């Protein structure tokens, strides 16, 4: 049995239970009996389906609308308005026809002198017969056809108005906006059946009506129109509302019906009546083709057996019944009747006139559901490559992989291992496309951590995971958490090119603690992970199943070579060489494709290419070079990929030496995002453009859309390096790369970061690749470290500074000024990471060295003094820091002058340590001097100037300076605005300004604004990324910030500030939790007596006292007071404030101090 349509999730579609059921009845005189016999066949079969003991249904209980013409109209009235069952209707119809047509009033058709046709039968007999039927049904012949009563079935009949010759519908129900013709039941019956040649027209009021068959003998169009007017008057879109539309004819009349016709009317009009009925049937089926094919529209009409039955031959009842029964027994009709019954039996309710609204809502829901499913389909497919139309063979491997993917009692992990170029990626790509309808597929390139993080972020954004704008570690956790949810269904995660062991076993980032990439793999019984790798060591601890990908078999390799060469004249003449050539290429797909491309481009034969391979027999090198070899993968055969590429390399050297130089240089930098400026000094000219085009034509590089950067294929990159190494030229090109990058990074400071940023990954690659410690490499390491430091990438900067220090210690000695400069840089970057003890040790070493080598008043010595003072201040060693800063300032003023940037830095640092000791007036004077000097010397937007602006803002808002908050807010606004412009949203200094602005806003009672600022900093500092933080300018900020980690002192300051603003808004519980977190962090990082720790103790005490937790609050306030006295002295403002807080608490408790 066919299933009913559903809306979604198996829920029944209301159309099947409540949709419109329409019945259309043709006209046809006594042949209307055929209509009734067909309808009887339908109703009998329908009622047989009903449970035993339930009453039989009548047509008026099944159909919502019945419309008819002529005798079909009479039947419609009896079935719908008088609510007869079919058997009652047949008996009444036979009696009606017998009485009407038993004896004509005129035996011959006559016409008046004016051509008017006179009727053959007595209309009074028709009226009497109709009235008797009406009376037998318990109605009164004078009852109105539309008596305003509510009925489940609506009935209308068609008639023709003599005045306009237009079709008129007489209805048993009111229709808003339509004229109601006040006909009685009898008048309506006479109006629809008053055939022109049979009966007089009927008068209703002032109008006269004749048989409707002349305009609509097959009334399906009228039924469609009436249903549209009733159920969808605004849209006219009826089809979606129709469950079942049944049209029943009166049989094919042949020519017998026309035998009595006289005059032009009879010779033309009545034949057109038959033709019109047939044409209407064909046209309507075509119009309703979807419903017809979907078993919702049915047309029943006896084609054979009724041709000899005239319109008035009532005595042919037996013939009509026999012909109809034969029609219903025909096999095709049996199926059609069965389908009609299956449709009608699910009808349960009448169709309300508001049903269209229900269907519209369902359609809208289905449309949204479809869009949602389409969206889900897109979101659950993240694969960067189209299906490879030339993919060949590998069916056994694919079937094996598909079988393994179906084993879901745990997270399935499979390693696809094979030699570089064997087709691992293409194999898994084909698998992904084959299973995409069965599960979600996500593809992650693992050739670098940066590319992996980018792919994870793209997946998270496609899936719209909350927090997808956070830093890379959080992104990995977000995707891991999502895929570990069993409810999302089956998925496949492909980790392509997982070749680097260190990538899987080293911490992902400083923010991730000890977590490695393997720790972020999702776990789900419905999930599968496939690694593709050249390195078996990567998979030792990662997977349960290993699938080794061998070379292609002969037939697969032959097919791949032929389809890739794709030139008949190159394949056929030399086809006997194919097996020999494929054997030399070791049936390796990448080697075959590369060789085929060479053959096609240069139009050489297979024999010629084979000869080239033979000529280079003694010069064959390892595919990827010794340092990239996969243990146990190489066999006792030549490395065909290397040979293939050597041929291409040598051809480029011969035909385009500049392209060969570019290829060699690119082999010594990072293979991704290579700017053309690394290759070309100045603009691209024709020669340079052609050289790059040569590499692109060999598919060795891929241009980005901007045409200013390129990617070099990873395997080509490694093979080129192996080739250079084999020729003992790799070291030379490494040095050239260092020299070129040194020139590009010659002018690096914080104001031109957009110019040097693109070169940093290549500089990192070059210095990691270089083993010599000459001046050029030392300078590049130093500049690369400085750029990373400027960018707030302190961990990477530290690595570079350590490298520079080791180089310098080895080359020039540990006490050389250049070596001491690296010691100093290393101390500064350690300080910025909150590693104060290590930083202090470095700065002391640098200072001692400078004093010994350069003397106590050398600018470098004074800078070192200043740096040491800063880290002492960070540790709360204020007195020593102040003394050291004053010494540095005096020396700088003497040696460099009062306006030198280094002197101004000393001024600024001294101001900060004075402020920390509560010496606000002197501190303010220092900061104003520093700011004015920086503006004059460096300009208003220099980062040092902006730091000075921030410092002055801090001192203006401090407690001991009467809180000049408006001026302080203006300062912080200025600093933040310019730092976002100059340093960008990614820099820690920008975060510090946001934090400072939040604090001064809080001091002014602007708590909501302040909370937004503090949350922005906290999210940025802790998570390293943030999305849409609301700043003072009320704009949405997008992007990500990599910063310092959850326990850096700056992060803890943000925690403390957020706790304070929450407390100010009365959010005491949240504030308490925030302060406890801050205090724990300070104690762990700075120690229990650091001033920042004591401030956190004080703040926690305040929020506890506001909650009535007096005992714990008192203990905290006493701890803070004792600590301040010890560290800052009894007269320091922070000490006095702490004492005041304790007194207030004790007063609340009624205790003395």
UniProtKB/TrEMBL annotation:
SUPFAM superfamilies noted in UniProt: FabD/lysophospholipase-like, P-loop containing nucleoside triphosphate hydrolases, TPR-like
Gene Ontology molecular function, alphabetical: ADP binding; hydrolase activity
Gene3D superfamilies per UniProt: Cytosolic phospholipase A2 catalytic domain, P-loop containing nucleotide triphosphate hydrolases, Tetratricopeptide repeat domain
Matches recorded under PROSITE patterns: PNPLA
Keywords assigned by UniProt, alphabetized: Hydrolase, Lipid degradation, Lipid metabolism
Chain ranges of the PNPLA domain: 23-224
Motif (GXGXXG): 27-32
Motif (GXSXG): 68-72
Motif range (DGA/G): 211-213
Keyword Nucleotide-binding: no
Name of the protein in its database record: PNPLA domain-containing protein
Native source organism of the sequence: Aspergillus wentii DTO 134E9
């Amino acid at each position: 049995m066919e299933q009913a349509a559903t809306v979604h999730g198996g829920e029944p579609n209301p159309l099947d239970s409540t949709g419109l059921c329409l019945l259309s009845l043709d006209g046809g005189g006594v042949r209307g009996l055929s209509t009734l016999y067909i309808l009887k066949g339908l109703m009998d079969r329908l009622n047989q389906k009903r449970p035993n003991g339930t009453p039989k249904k009548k047509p008026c209980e099944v159909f919502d609308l019945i419309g008819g013409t002529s005798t079909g109209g009479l039947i419609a009235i009896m079935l719908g308005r008088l609510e007869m069952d079919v058997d009652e209707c047949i008996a009444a119809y036979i009696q009606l026809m017998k009485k009407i047509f038993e004896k004509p009033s005129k035996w011959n058709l006559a016409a008046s002198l004016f051509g008017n046709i006179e009727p053959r039968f007595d209309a009074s007999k028709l009226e009497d017969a109709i009235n008797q039927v009406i009376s037998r049904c318990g109605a009164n012949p004078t009852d109105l056809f539309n008596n305003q009563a509510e009925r489940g079935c609506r009935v209308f009949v068609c008639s023709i108005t003599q005045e306009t010759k237009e079709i008129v519908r007489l209805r048993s129900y009111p229709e808003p906006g339509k004229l109601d013709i006040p006909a009685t039941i009898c008048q309506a019956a006479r109006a629809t059946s008053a055939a022109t040649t049979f009966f007089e027209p009927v008068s209703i009021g002032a109008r006269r009506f004749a048989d409707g068959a002349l305009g609509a003998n097959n009334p399906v169009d009228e039924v469609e129109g009436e249903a549209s007017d009733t159920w969808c008057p605004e849209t006219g879109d009826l089809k979606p509302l129709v469950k079942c539309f049944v049209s029943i004819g009166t049989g094919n009349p042949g020519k017998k019906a026309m035998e009595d016709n006289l005059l032009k009317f009879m010779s033309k009009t009545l034949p057109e009546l038959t033709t019109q009925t047939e044409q209407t049937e064909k046209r309507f089926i075509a119009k309703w083709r979807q419903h017809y094919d979907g078993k919702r529209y049915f047309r029943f009409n006896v084609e054979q057996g009724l041709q000899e039955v005239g319109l008035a031959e009532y005595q042919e009842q037996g013939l009509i019944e026999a012909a109809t029964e034969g029609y219903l027994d025909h096999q095709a009709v049996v199926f059609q009747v069965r389908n009609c019954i299956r449709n009608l039996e699910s009808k349960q309710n009448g169709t309300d006139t508001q049903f269209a609204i229900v269907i519209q809502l369902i359609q809208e829901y289905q449309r949204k559901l479809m869009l949602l499913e389409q969206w889900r389909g897109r979101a659950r497919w993240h694969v960067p490559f189209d299906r490879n139309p030339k993919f060949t063979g590998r069916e056994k491997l694919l079937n094996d992989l598909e079988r393994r993917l179906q084993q879901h009692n745990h997270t399935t992990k499979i390693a696809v291992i094979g030699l570089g170029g064997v087709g691992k990626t293409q194999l898994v790509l084909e698998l992904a496309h084959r299973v995409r309808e069965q599960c979600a597929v996500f593809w992650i390139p693992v050739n670098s951590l940066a590319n992996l993080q980018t792919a994870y972020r793209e997946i998270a954004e496609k899936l719209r995971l909350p927090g997808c704008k956070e830093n890379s570690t959080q992104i990995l956790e977000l995707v891991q958490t999502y895929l570990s949810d069993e409810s999302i269904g089956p998925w496949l995660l492909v980790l392509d090119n997982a070749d680097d062991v260190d990538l899987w076993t080293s911490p992902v980032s400083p923010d991730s603690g000890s977590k490695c990439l393997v720790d972020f793999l999702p776990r789900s019984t419905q999930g599968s992970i496939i690694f593709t790798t050249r390195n078996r060591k990567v998979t030792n601890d990662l997977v349960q199943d290993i699938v080794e990908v061998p070379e292609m078999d002969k037939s697969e390799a032959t097919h791949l070579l032929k389809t890739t060469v794709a030139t008949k004249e190159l394949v056929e003449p030399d086809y006997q060489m194919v097996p020999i050539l494929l054997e030399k290429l070791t049936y390796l797909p990448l080697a075959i494709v590369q060789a085929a491309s060479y053959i096609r481009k240069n139009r050489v034969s297979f024999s010629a290419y084979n000869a080239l391979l033979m000529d280079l027999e003694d010069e064959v090198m390892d595919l990827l070079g010794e340092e990239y070899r996969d243990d146990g993968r190489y066999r006792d055969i030549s490395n065909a990929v290397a040979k293939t590429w050597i041929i291409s390399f040598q051809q480029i050297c011969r035909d385009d030496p500049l392209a060969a130089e570019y290829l060699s240089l690119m082999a010594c930098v990072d293979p991704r995002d290579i700017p053309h400026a690394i290759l070309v000094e100045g603009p691209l000219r024709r020669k340079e453009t052609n050289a790059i085009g040569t590499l692109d034509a060999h598919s060795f590089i891929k241009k980005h859309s901007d045409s200013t950067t390129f990617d070099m294929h990873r395997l080509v990159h490694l093979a080129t390096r192996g080739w250079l190494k084999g020729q003992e030229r790799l070291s030379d090109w490494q040095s050239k790369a260092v020299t070129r990058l040194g020139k590009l990074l010659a002018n690096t400071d914080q104001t031109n970061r957009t110019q040097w940023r693109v070169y940093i990954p290549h500089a990192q690659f070059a210095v990691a690749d270089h083993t010599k410690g000459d001046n050029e490499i030392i300078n590049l390491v130093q500049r690369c470290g400085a750029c990373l430091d400027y960018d707030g990438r302190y961990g990477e900067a530290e690595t570079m500074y350590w490298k520079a220090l080791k180089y310098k210690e080895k080359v020039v000695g540990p006490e050389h000024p250049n070596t001491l400069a690296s010691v100093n840089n290393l101390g500064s970057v350690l300080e910025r990471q909150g590693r104060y003890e290590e930083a202090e040790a470095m700065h002391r070493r640098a200072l001692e060295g400078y004093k010994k080598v350069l003397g106590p008043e050398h600018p470098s010595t004074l800078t070192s003094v200043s740096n040491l003072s800063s880290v002492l201040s960070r540790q709360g060693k204020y007195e020593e820091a102040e003394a050291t800063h004053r010494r540095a300032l005096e020396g700088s003023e003497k040696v460099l002058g009062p306006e030198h940037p280094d002197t101004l830095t000393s001024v600024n640092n001294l101001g900060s340590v004075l402020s920390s000791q509560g010496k606000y007036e002197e501190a303010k004077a220092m900061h104003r001097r520093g700011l004015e000097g920086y503006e004059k010397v460096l300009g208003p937007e220099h980062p040092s100037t902006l730091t000075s602006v921030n410092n002055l803002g801090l001192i203006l808002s401090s407690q001991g300076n009467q809180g000049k908050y408006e001026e302080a807010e203006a300062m912080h606004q200025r600093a933040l605005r310019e730092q976002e412009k100059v340093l960008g949203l990614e820099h820690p200094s920008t975060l510090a300004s946001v934090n400072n602005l939040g604090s001064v806003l809080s001091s002014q009672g602007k708590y909501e604004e302040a909370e937004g600022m503090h949350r922005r900093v906290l999210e940025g500092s802790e998570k390293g990324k943030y999305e849409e933080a609301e700043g003072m300018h009320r704009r949405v900020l997008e992007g990500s910030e990599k910063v310092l980690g959850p326990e850096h002192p700056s992060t803890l300051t943000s925690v403390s500030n957020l706790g304070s603003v929450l407390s100010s808004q009365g959010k005491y519980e949240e504030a308490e939790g925030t302060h406890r977190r801050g205090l724990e962090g300070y104690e762990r990082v700075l120690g229990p007596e650091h001033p920042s720790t004591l401030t956190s103790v004080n703040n926690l005490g305040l929020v506890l006292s506001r909650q009535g937790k007096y005992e714990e609050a008192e203990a905290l306030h006493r701890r803070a007071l004792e600590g301040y006295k010890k560290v800052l002295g009894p007269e320091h403002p922070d000490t006095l404030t702490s004492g005041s807080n304790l007194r207030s608490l004790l007063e609340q408790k009624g205790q003395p101090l």
